[in-house]
Amino acid sequence: MRGSAIVESHRGPDCNRVQDAYSLRCAPQVHGAARDTVSYVETVADRELAAAIDNPVVLPDGRVESNGNFHGAPIAYPLDFLAIPVADVASMAERRTDRMLDATRSHGLPPFLADDPGVDSGHMIAQYTQAAIVSELKRLAVPASVDSIPSSAMQEDHVSMGWSAARKLRKAVDGLTTVLAIELLTAARALDLRAPLTPAPATARVVAELRKKVRGPGQDRHLAPEIAAAEALVREGNLP
What we know:
It is a single chain. The termini are far apart. The protein is an all-alpha fold. The chain has a single domain, classed as Fumarase C, Chain A, domain 2 (Up-down Bundle). Strand 1 and strand 2 form a beta hairpin. Helix 6 runs antiparallel to helix 7. The chain is elongated. The protein has 9 helices and 2 strands, in the order ααααββααααα. The protein has a two-stranded antiparallel sheet.
């Protein structure tokens, strides 16, 4: 405790005024680790798709042998693994969205990016949606492959639950897509509200692509169609 006090004293109360929050500063590290996880899962998937999983298997010399190559553990483990960075990337995205909506941390942006703060809600409810999804993603990150339900008179006494891992990962990826779409909508609105300041060229191209589907800041309106349009852009993977 004493050491922690010394560190805090050294950092001082103004530390957060000169350093960005982790959700901004550490995004490359978290996103990089997530990409590494995707690469690992792709490697396993490629290997297992090319593997022999028949049971029994007919060997080159004509023998027929019983085996366990069908067991789903090699796939179940990576599917569970990938659900972890999916939840974590979404969690960071939601934190960045929240910062843009909080007038105490957004460096001059209107509360909730509302056109008429106090009357309009801006993107407040969209962030609620993110928060609810992120909470669910954390639950979906709990591994399925640690479970096992015996069947077939205890012959199949240890199963991988890989199908369950795959189903929850699919749901998690859909949730991440929505969370990223809302961050995209919010960031684009925040950038528009910063005018006449302009973003970097690559960021500007992303905003321009979004603006083909979603109009810019204005009075409160139904956000679901705009979220759906942004989801489509994220899902297609063709943003600049």
